[in-house]
Design goal:
The complex is a heterodimer of chains A (241) and B (331). Chain A is built from nine helices and ten strands. The longest helix of chain A is centred in the C-terminal third of the chain and has 18 residues. In chain A, strands 6-7-8-3-9-10 form a six-stranded mixed beta sheet, sandwiched between helices. In chain A, strands 2-1-4-5 form a four-stranded antiparallel beta sheet, with helices on one face. In chain A, 38% of the residues lie in helices and 25% in strands. Chain B has eleven helices and three strands. In chain B, 34% of the residues are buried. Classes of the chains: A alpha/beta (241), B mainly alpha (331).
């Protein structure tokens, strides 16, 4: 379970988050929508404890990650899988090693099992042949898919996706969304997806939160989204056509 | 009319120092020097009865002066404030650099050590720098021999050419010039690599995977620096002495036995040890500063280029400053 309680954060005197409150129950996925530059990625980084809030708490299964240090923080972070906006693949090692990296470092799996798991994950994201390539040789979409494979390889309890389908063609985007849904059905992870692709994501998530002006303006169920009175949500749909 | 409160809080904006003191004294200083006017933080509504008439008159005079020269004061205050905040940020940066080194050293002694990465970085900082070090070493030795020869010939002391060249190289030029060369080649590359990892969120990715970036990135570089620099300085020295030999013996006709024989006589193990201590500390400095600058890169390509430049400039300056202090202590 992820719970944000009254999160405030400012950078260089500019308030980015102003009293964020939300709760994602265990096994639930929440979509987070909002304008670019309004602090969605910053909020996601608060949840994994990379950025500490100026005020407020982020509770991961009841533990405040902002106050956790050392092995307690490490223990909490082991629960996470995080898909960064740009993929954040390690560019000094190839795709295979990138996907294998968390398995080698965080698990006791033997070499053969790791190899099989990596191949399986790369197949799932539609890139079975890319193992020997380096991140610099991949397109933006391919990088994102490899990054997704890396996230999913450790079967995390909590998944955070920072714009998993932005910049991808509609076919790949749909396959990524399907992959997230299938993995969720299999692992029942708790998740947050930052996205602009609201129409596509409705079938994947259990609720949609709107971040506006540094606050969660509203939280609605997917089936309520289209009929929502929230001006921001309406605007979001109108923009999408 | 405004009156005084019981507490007089004056802040000197310029250096960010806030203190409570006798207001009269502070106002007097400001009026006298006219370089700043204290910021009166509180309205002064009551308790006038507690103050003497002299005090009241004094503050009224200050207020009069302030309101008549407000604009000028603000300009001066603003520039002093900027200077102050710049000075504070420099000290902050020094503090952070120290804390960074402390953390890196701490994680060096916390197992497990990433031996594979240490070896990889020794290859990157050390092995790949060896050609440039041999080249610069040879030419430094050659030109040093040439210059020393012309100087010594005047006194008829060319017999001491060998030890002079060797001492200069081993005690001073070897560690310093090789360190400066490696800073240019490997220090800049380290800062850029770690900087790009920072801006492309690769360091964040490590953290999210519950893996310590210090253990994976910083400690291997620190150890590789400490191991590689003394070895490279030794290669530099050998190449320099060989270059000196070519110029002295083959070109200038100094006797081979004299060149090497005197070198053995005059050179002490202490000289070699001092040279190694120096390059060892330079290795730590370069790896530390380059990693720190890369690790704290601000966003964008400009941030990486700034980090790289700062890494090279700061490391080079620190090498020369530290060299002086180390020499004055060790000799």
């Amino acid at each position: 379970m992820i719970e944000a309680i009254d999160i405030y954060k400012s950078f260089n005197g500019i308030d980015v988050l102003r009293g964020i409150e939300f709760r994602v129950e265990k096994g639930e996925i929440m979509a987070l929508i909002g304008k670019s530059g309004h602090g969605k990625s910053v909020l996601l980084k608060h949840i994994v404890g990379i950025i500490k809030p100026d005020r407020g708490q982020i509770l991961i299964d009841g533990e405040d990650i902002g106050q956790s240090r050392g092995s307690a923080l490490e223990g909490l972070r082991r629960k996470f899988g995080f898909l960064f906006q740009g993929g954040a693949l390690f560019d000094s090692i190839n795709v295979f090693d990138n996907v294998a990296f968390p398995l080698r470092e965080k698990t006791r799996m033997d070499r053969e099992n790791i190899r099989q798991r990596v191949i399986q994950e790369l197949e799932q994201v539609g890139l079975p042949e890319a193992g020997n390539k380096y991140p610099a040789e991949l397109s933006g979409g391919m990088k994102k898919r490899v990054a997704l494979a890396r996230c999913l390889s450790t079967d995390p309890e909590i998944m955070l996706f920072d714009e998993p389908t932005t910049g991808l063609d509609p076919i790949t985007a749909r396959s990524i969304n399907n992959l997230i849904r299938e993995t969720h059905e299999r692992l029942k992870f708790t998740g947050i997806i930052i996205t602009h692709d609201i129409a596509q994501i409705l079938s994947v998530v259990q609720k949609v939160a709107v971040l506006n002006e540094g606050k969660i303006e509203s939280v609605v169920r997917p089936e309520e989204v289209r009929s929502s009175d929230d001006p921001f949500i309406r605007q979001f749909f109108e923009e999408e056509g | 009319m405004q009156t005084r409160k019981d507490l007089y809080k004056f802040s000197i904006w310029s250096f960010g120092v806030s203190f409570e003191t006798n207001p009269n004294l502070l106002c007097l200083i400001c009026l006298d020097t006219q370089w700043a006017f204290p910021y009166i933080s509180s309205e002064i509504p009551d308790s006038v009865g507690n103050q003497s008439v002299g005090n009241r008159r004094f503050v009224d005079a200050i207020r009069f002066f302030y309101f008549n020269h407000q604009k000028g004061f603000h300009v001066v205050l603003e520039s002093i404030r900027r200077l102050g905040s710049r000075i504070i940020s420099v000290f902050e940066d020094i503090g952070k650099t120290g804390v960074f080194l402390g953390s890196a050293l701490f994680w060096t002694f916390v197992p497990p050590l990433k031996v594979g990465r240490v070896i990889k970085q020794i290859s990157f900082i050390g092995v790949k720098s060896s050609l440039i070090v041999i080249l610069t070493g040879a030419f430094t030795g050659m030109v040093l021999t040439l210059q020393t020869y012309y100087g010594m010939e005047t006194f008829g002391a060319t017999a001491l050419l060998g030890p002079t060249v060797a001492l200069a190289l081993i005690r001073e030029l070897g560690p310093v010039i090789s360190a400066l060369m490696i800073t240019g080649r490997a220090g800049s590359a380290l800062a850029a690599e770690i900087g790009i990892m920072r801006i492309s969120e690769q360091i964040d990715a490590l953290e999210v995977m519950a893996l310590n970036p210090f253990r994976y990135l910083i400690v291997p570089n620190l150890l590789a620096g400490i191991i590689s620099f003394p070895l490279l300085a030794s290669i530099f020295n050998a190449a320099g002495i060989l270059g000196g030999y070519l110029v002295a013996v083959q070109l200038l006709g100094v006797s081979e036995g004299g060149f090497f024989g005197e070198m053995v006589n005059y050179l002490d193990m202490k000289d070699i040890r001092i040279g190694l201590y120096k390059s060892l500390s330079f290795g730590l400095i370069v790896a530390w500063i380059s990693c720190y600058k890369g690790f704290n890169t601000s966003y964008g390509a400009e941030g990486v280029s700034k980090a790289t430049t700062e890494a090279v400039v700061t490391s080079s300056v620190l090498i020369l400053v530290w060299d002086y202090f180390l020499t004055s202590v060790l000799f």
